[in-house]
Amino acid sequence: MIRSFRLAALYFRLGALNELQYRANFFVALFQSALAVSVGLVVLALVYSHTTTLNGWKQPELMVVLGVQILLGGIIHATIQPNMQQLVDEVRDGKLDFALTKPEDAQVLISLRALRLWQFTEVISGSAVIGVGVYRIDAGLGLWRSLAFVALLLMGALLLYCFWLILATGSFWIVNMWFLSDLFEGIYQVGRWPIGVYPGWLRYSMSYLVPIGFAVTVPAQALTNRLGWETVVIALGFGAALVVFTRWFWRFGLKRYSGASA
Amino acid sequence: MPALPAPERASAPAIRRELWLRSMFDFYATGIRTQIQTQFQYPAATYMYTLGMVAEPVIYLVVWTTIAKSQGGAVQGIGTAQFAAYYIVWTFVRAMNIVFTPYGWEWRIREGELSGHLLRPLHPIHYDLAWFAGHKVPWLVMYLPIGVGLTLIFHPALHPRPLEIVVFLIAIWGAYLIRSLNNFILGMITIWTTRASAIFEVWFLSELLLSGRLLPLTLMPHWVQSLSNWLPFKWTFYFPIESLVGDMSNIELVKGLGTQLLWIGVCTALMRGAWKLSVRHYSAVGN
Question: Can you give the pTM of this predicted structure?
Fold first, then answer.
């Protein structure tokens, strides 16, 4: 376990050094997250120019949801997505063997290798949107609720990591998986709105099939004072089950993988 | 030796033109056929891609349906059934609007693909047009069950007149051409700078807001609506969708097709100019 953390730190440093060579990209990323935030806010403004509440959510509360979605998106784009994309590409090109023959646990290794540092700008812009939203709700924010928010957010990142890894593991069967990022990006947009807005079939599939409801809406609920302890218990139980399942599915897929380069 | 009969001499350019048309037709038919067969090799990939794509309209539809319900059934006269029709047809039009992405030009240049393109006898736009036209067929086959599912869930109100169907079937190809040409011109920027992606993003965001992709344009503030009249975006989303879903008069329908034609002309001219300038600027990378 300790070794995995040290490895993670090492890979992070390596990735950061690599990205720091291209400093102009920081400004491009900054520009892009500014655009993303403005569009999100414009859409909210459009929606609330025709109504005052959306399924019981007021505008500042939806700003919090938007902020959480952007923040979490930043974490995914910076750390999870590049790794998963690399995994899928390497399965297709037959290069995964190089990672598998290393002495470290393969799942740990393939989850740590890549980093897109500048995507963390989305974490900053998302936090800013959350901050403005919370300020405008004007209900104060206790220590416990903030702590619950941070914990649930980390848990959300873990859930989305599991979901991405399950998808990427699919490439052991379906070799040509170029579409995965498109698929994920498309579905991830669901998280921009509180999960309760969607009709039942979609709400359940976006909570249990794709854990976006738990990953985005639940942390936002913690900040907007809508969180009951039942939800937290269900989220924790589901998270634990998903982690176990992901581990099993990864090894199951790996057993099936015969390599393409040999 | 008597001279050749006059009519034959006069028709030589006409014959050449006919040959050219026939070979172009062959080229497109072959390109489209190849692409259909290639795409059917990867049904899982096409299906997953489709699922990711359908998320966008379903989100919009759910949000606006929720608003309509909370406002007593309609937003500015657009009811839930109209929203459903709009976004289900939207998906179809969106699929027609999938063209070679300007982001792809970066890859083309880096991998030396573009150099290969320069050696071919036809303008590169023809290859892209044929390739992506062929793409539509497998996609449509995949989309049909999803479209039926969405129809059963959301109950759209769709009662087009025969003329509207005809105009729609033409307009989706008009939209395809306009968007192909636009994105080709955008792609040319990549030849001039390596940070073109920031410009692309501004473009696509303008498209999102001004084309009717995000929501029916009538729900936009008035100044946005007037602005969109002067830009090409509206003719690639709002007009094709509305030709089938809305109730436009015959005159409006024909005018719409005419405007599409105008934009195709303008974009073709711009595209040719941009291509010529850019190729002159381009220095090859790759093998």
Answer: 0.85
